[in-house]
Amino acid sequence: MNAPQNLPDPSDKDALRAWLRANRGKAPGHDPVRSPDELASAQRRKLLKAVGLGTGDTGAGHERRSLRLALAGTPVKEHSVESSVLGQWLVSFQDTVSTVAHALDESRPTHEYGPIPDAVRKATRLYATATFPSSYGLVLEEAPADESELPLTDVASAESLLDRAMWTVLDLTDRAGAGPGAVDAVIATALPLGSRVFSRLADLTEVLADSGVDISLTWSSPYSGVRASRLGARSAQQCRDALRAVQPEESEERLTGRLVGGSKLRGTVEIETVDRGVITARVEHEVTSLLSAYANRQITAEVLVSTVRSPHGREHHSYAVRRLGLSGH
């Protein structure tokens, strides 16, 4: 058999027909290419393979984001773990990551109602892969590339919603194991994310608290690098009890002050008030345009205030701007 020829330019119809005629008989194990659509699919697979996607190749062409879980404790014996504990943890962890991602997504509304969008769930799906040596070790990876969508060359090195969500989850697990101030630290970090995150974190820490499992988490991303965190069963129990005991209360307020800053990345603005100092508030609008219109000017803001009182008596507040305008207008 002659050596396979290079795939022709699809815009050259004569060359395309000639190539199809010459290649109807393929090598054993390969289906013949019989139409321009099949040829386009073959070209796409060839390109995905060249960049290390769509074929299971995770070499230098594409490093897939991953999380290593190492479990230890009572349910772990001889490198195995009770399936009920592992199953509860994986379901709860996936729900937590998706909920945190929804809270971080700039396009979400400031209220807590309605289901998490399918697009957010798809962007944060994790797949279980091989285990590794540990008391019990498991690897979770980001979803495989969809061959129907040709990825951009810089996707792997750009921050994704999954990166942001995972980084925030590890912030929370770090704070949960921070010692005497852990409960207040977790509440302060979770409050801006909304009440649903409180519920998901309570579910997540309950799995560890009830089963006596300690867990180590190592996140690896081409964008954010490698980061490790650990959460023990005792710390998880303390946080679970606190999270179950508190419930964010919401109220609407009108604030006056000066718009002194903002973060496009976080979707927040900073308002300097007379009685509360500088507060940071989430906004639904584009931060750059707000700064351009209102920076260092007296403004009035209608805000949704979420308040939580920790078991230690400390009050935590989070703000979300509903409307913003110049004072006197």
What does this protein structure show overall?
With 329 residues, the chain is of the alpha+beta class. It contains nine helices and twelve strands. The protein has a five-stranded antiparallel β-sheet with strand order 4-5-1-6-7. A hairpin with a 4-residue loop joins β8 and β9 (268-273). α3 (83-104) packs across α5 (161-176). It is flat and about 80 Å long. The model is unreliable at 1-5, 47-61 and 147-156 (pLDDT under 50).
Mean pLDDT: 79
Query: Which regions contain 5 or more consecutive residues with pLDDT less than 50?
Result: 1-5, 47-61, 147-156
Q: What is the gyration radius calculated from CA atoms?
A: 25 Å
Structural class designation: alpha+beta
For the report, how would you describe the main beta sheet? 5 strands, antiparallel
| Binned strand content | 25-35%
Helix content: 25-40%
The total count of strands amounts to: 12
The number of helices is 9
What is the overall shape? flat
H-E order:
HHEEEHHEEHHHEEHEEEHEE
Strand order of the largest sheet: 4-5-1-6-7
Distance between the termini: 81 Å
